[in-house]
Amino acid sequence: MQKVLSPLLFTIVLVLSVFAQEVDLVKMRTEQGILKIEADLSWHTLRVRGKPWQFGLNCTISETELLQLIEKLVTEKDSLLKAQTFSSFMLGRVVEFPWLEEFLMGQAAQSPEWQAERGRLTKRQVHINEWVAKVLFKHPIWQKVRQMLRKSGYDVSKISVEKVLVNDVPKIGLESVKDLTGKLPFDAQVSLILKKN
Length: 197
Known about the structure:
Elements: H1 2-20, E1 22-29, E2 33-40, E3 45-52, H2 63-76, H3 78-83, E4 88-93, H4 98-110, E5 114-115, E6 120-121, H5 128-136, H6 141-150, E7 154-168, H7 169-172, E8 183-196
Helix pairs in contact: 2-6
């Protein structure tokens, strides 16, 4: 009996210790649900999460809400931010930020580097993840985010992007870009790469 309990007890302690490293730093209520920034102290990462009020619905995040959440983070958790060294700030999927999705699609539609009729870059030497990261980093919100994070000793050095999705504009279903045509990038996993000053 003791031989069975020892591995089980070890597993439970291991799982609990992993979860103990994840901490909710700040929360904010919105019309769609609860937004929060959590920290993984073992991986030295921050992450934005949205939990909708109703199961099955999305919890999108507006520009204003993201800025308010980050302002709350640097105001309420400044000492933690200064005591730790966080290396990335995971935002999640672009589609959770419709204004960023719209920006990405608009930039791709106007860019001579993107072939909307074929849904790919004109130059095959350039990786789509790198190109989308470069495009997203042009959005003016990041200057505001950088100013806020500098209060706690951080800067955003770049954006990291993975798993870019491309689709025909009508299939994406974003009303604000219905006049665009072709196959455009509209979603990806996005993280801000942080540098501590």
